[in-house]
Amino acid sequence: MNNKIFNSQLLNTDLATLLLRLIFGGLFIHYGYMKIASYDQILPMFGDLIGIGSKLSFNLVIFAEFGCGILIVLGLFTRLSVIPVFITMLVAFFIAHSKDPFDVKALAFVFMLLSLVVFILGSGKFSADRLIFGRQKRR
Length: 139
Description:
Helix content is about 70%, strand content about 0%. With about 140 residues, it is mostly helical. It has one domain.
């Protein structure tokens, strides 16, 4: 009996990549939109964590979460788009929440690790990258 559930072979990497991109990017769109919608309330509380000013830092976080989240969902420039997300989560985990218990910063840690997974996988077959740049040969 050939049971695919217990088989160690891949079911469909491209479909899994699409689902990961949609969930991961969708969550960042959500978090970024919340920051945009509450911009005037959040900005005064947002610290200057990396020495470039709190307003610029906050705007970069919004760009990473909302702007790059949209690109990740679309699968457009996916590997480039996930870099700002990774940096944002790196700063959130190691700087912004450095003194917090792990339970508080666990989400930033998970997103940081998932950024690496998305970077390694790329955009996959079901993506704007594939439509624009065509099929890439695998080695």
